[in-house]
Amino acid sequence: MRHPLPRRLASAAVVLSGALVLSGCQLLSPGSGDGPDTGVDAAGPEVVGEVPAELEDFYTQDVAWEVCEEDFACATIEVPLDYADPSRESIDIALIRSDATGEAQGSVLVNPGGPGGSGVNIVRDALTFVTSDRLREAYDVVGFDPRGVGKSSAVDCQTDEEREADRLEYLEPGISDAEALETLTREAEEFAALCAERTGELLGHVDTDSAARDLDILRAAVGDRQLNYLGFSYGTALGAAYAELFPTNTGRLVLDGAVDPSLSNEDITLGQARGFEAALRTYVADCQLAADCPLPSGVDEGVTVIQDLFRSVEESPMTASDGRLVTISTFFSGFILPLYDNNNWSLLTGAIDQALQGDPSAMLQLADLAAEREPNGSYATNSTAAFTAINCLDYPMASDPAELEADAADLLEASPTFGPYLAYGGVTCDAWAFDPVLEPAPASAPDAAPLLVIGTTGDPATPYDWSLALADQLTTSVHVTWDGEGHTAYGRAGDCIGDLVDAYFVDGTVPEDGVRCD
């Protein structure tokens, strides 16, 4: 299913819903989870404010924490499938907790982005990369899989074998635009039908507002009067939605790599296209400073070599050393991943060097990381399916052929390298079994506690201007800038950002609005 269309009718198959994944993508080594022996006696539910009678059982449920993964505690809680009718049935939300290394002053809930990112996995596998020693000393750190994701009640669209088969499919050169669009539409309908058949009614209830309502039940489940929250990328949209729905329950919320909730899906995709094209040019300039850079001198010349490489893979997929076929969709996914973090640019250089010599194996390894593919061919999460399902409910999307063609032209102009592979995303959601339930709108939470919004000037996935917009919409927030490259800041931007965030969480010190960190 995930194959590119001709360049004038570019691939929606790279990401079916039309935008790049808004996750805090970093190539991370497993964290240590080095807290004390994990107890299972976290504080019980504590309801704050008025709770509708039909939700009281959810807010006051007993939470059975059990030791898991050696250094963690795990639990599952129940939330309503449908908040409009909580009595119908419930679904499960999976939690993982790393106990504070000192005296805990509460919990910090973590969302890594997506939509579709697993908070359980990020806390289990990368705790020391996304939180500091000081934060872990003062707080229990709790990861959760939002509704539809991972170990929670999850969207189910494809088996691992079906996902693997999709990565091998591509369109033969010479196919017309009309034939390509017809193929994409048919396969989008097949994918949507599988999701509906295998997921059932949950598929219509994985929107961000429902997940934000879950978040308040999670706050009660960990025993906190107010929510303390660390949200990266799409996690900022979830945090902003929470602040809007439950302003008096907000505690200390850090929104890093902010999404502007007033933007349409098409605006988001266009902004990302510009962001990644700019990141590519910055990367090329940096690469050319090194003696081993495989690109010719001159940024334009280097970018042209990369564009020619993309066209070559599009026309004739490559074969990796393990015998697997590398189509343009797979190649694109592998190429994009290191652009999320400038610390990983050297990996991209090596992959480009190999690919220019006819070997796509390193690029395939990066694509496997992006897809969370295990060496045995299984996939660690359902992040791709969840991403599509959540976005199809959160955003009305253009689906008229004329609109799609106009959007594709805008994307090509904004990003000659990547734009062709980001177009026509609305086709999948047009085939979706459930209509969108949300509309883009500015965030509004005038009664929320002081919030902290962070933007990175060279962020390709959530452009810097989005953070300024969100901070302007959330009138109780302050904005902090990191002058750096890559996606999100906390955990990778050094002491300036780290100390500000830690002081905010641990001491309640709100930074001065407009602080900049180099």
Descriptors:
two-stranded antiparallel sheet, 17 helices, 39% helix, 14% strand, 518 residues, alpha/beta, single chain, ten-stranded mixed sheet
Describe the protein.
Helix 9 packs antiparallel against helix 10 (328-336). The protein has 17 helices and 14 strands. It is globular, with a radius of gyration of 22 Å. Strands 2-3-4-7-5-8-9-12-13-14 form a ten-stranded mixed beta sheet, sandwiched between helices. It has a two-stranded antiparallel sheet with strand order 1-6. Helices cover 39% and strands 14% of the residues. The longest helix has 23 residues, at 177-199. It starts with 21 loop residues before the first strand and ends with a strand.
- Helix- and strand-based class? alpha/beta
* Biggest sheet features: 10 strands, mixed
Q: Specify the helix fraction band.
A: 25-40%
Distance between the termini: 43 Å
Percent in strands: 5-15%
Low-confidence stretches: 1-19, 24-46
**What topology, given as strand order, has the largest sheet?**
2-3-4-7-5-8-9-12-13-14
Radius of gyration: 22 Å
Q: Give the overall silhouette.
A: globular
Q: Give the tally of β-strands.
A: 14
